[in-house]
Structures are given as C-alpha cells and as structure tokens.
Amino acid sequence: YFQPWTSCPPPREGSFRVPGHPHLARDFWRTVPEEYAHKGLFWWRAVTVAFLFRVRSDVLEEIAIEEAKKSMDWGPGMIGLHVRRGDSCHTSIRKGRCIPLSEHITRVRAMSTRYNATRVFVATDSPGVLEGLREAAPELSFHGTPSGLDLYGLEATIGECQRRHRGKQDDGETLSDGCTGNDAWIEHRLGRGSIP
C-alpha cells in the first residue's frame, strides 16, 4: 500500500546480524536533526511518519479518497469523531465500557459551538452509529464510510472459537468447525477471507 522508503535497489546479499551493544540506539528516538531542532520532537516524528507511510498513487486511485471527500463537503470546519462499538467494547479488557453516543454528542456539540462547525466525519466499526448520531443531533451533518462488518456477531464468533480451542496458537490451520488459530485477531480472519 505504501511507497518504498528508498530508491536503492535491493541488496544482493542476505540479511545478517551486526553485533552491537543493546543500548547503542537507546536514545535515538529522541534525536532530531540539528537543522530541525527548533521545530521540536513532535514535529520531527510527524514528518518521519508521514514520509514512511506515503500511500502509493494506484492505491489512492482505488480508494478514491478525493471523491469521497467531495461527496462529504470535506474541508475546514470538519470535526472528526471515532466511535468504537465492535470487538473493542466486548473484550475482557474493556467489557461493557464503550462511551455512550450521548457522551459523544455532548463533546461534538461543544466543539461545534467552539469552532462554528456543523459537519462531522465519523470513523466507526458499527453500521448503526451514524444513524444513531443523526437521530440524536439533527442540527449536525454526520458523514462516514459505511462499515460492512457486523463486529458484534464477529465478536461472538471469536469468543466461541476461543472457548472451544483454549490455548491454540495461530498456525493458519482452519479446523472442521471453521475456527482457526487465534481468531481474536480480526486481521487474521481478514487475511484468510473469513470476513467479506
């Protein structure tokens, strides 16, 4: 999905371990090139990440992000909101602790007043969230990308597979009941084509 980090051709030799002290690069992450030091560490890290994750032009064309932005009247004054409702709300760590839509609405209304913005882009893992937000705050214009995944159902499937096969490591093997390895990782299921 991303552009190469370098224009150098791949090396002819294989990888090899270079002996060194484990703390040799311990503080390297805090280093900013001298000519950019006045801009600070946060700026340098942001520029570095932006460079490393430059999306290839063919991928940008495929996802048609510019057309999607136009359809949402994207521009200055757009509030961003991330609402989690799928697997993250039902794992053992966060069980039942997802933020209610009413709290999201309170915060969005405060930002709307403060910044005179009425358009809200919603990133969510649940198809019902956009509809719920639109009903709760009709004075705001909510936009988002539709989610085709039913993560509530997916979470139930994952939980059932984990109960049936406690301790099974992810080896990519699909069992006769449809479970495979560590089904807790959605990425694993996507990679196998278990999720449309």
SS strand fraction:
5-15%
- Major pleated sheet: 3 strands, parallel
- Order of helical and strand elements: HHHEHHEHEHH
Fraction of residues in H or I helices: 25-40%
Radius of gyration: 22 Å
- The total beta strand count reads 3
Low-confidence stretches: 148-156, 182-187
Derived from helix and strand composition plus strand pairing, the structural class reads: mainly alpha
GO molecular function: alpha-(1->6)-fucosyltransferase activity
Pfam family, one: FUT8_N_cat
GO biological process, one term: protein N-linked glycosylation
Protein name: Alpha-(1,6)-fucosyltransferase N- and catalytic domain-containing protein
Q: Would you mind describing this structure in some detail?
A:
- This protein is mainly alpha-helical and 196 residues long.
- Among the domains are: 28-55, no CATH class; 73-84 and 95-144; 151-192, no CATH class.
- Helices cover 38% and strands 8% of the residues.
- The chain has helices spanning 41-52, 57-63, 65-71, 87-90, 101-115, 128-136, 151-164, 186-192, and strands spanning 78-83, 119-124, 141-144.
- The longest helix is centred in the middle third of the chain and has 15 residues, at 101-115.
- The two termini are 19 Å apart.
- Pfam families: FUT8_N_cat.
- InterPro entries: Fut8_N_cat.
- This is Alpha-(1,6)-fucosyltransferase N- and catalytic domain-containing protein.
- One of its GO terms (molecular function) is alpha-(1->6)-fucosyltransferase activity.
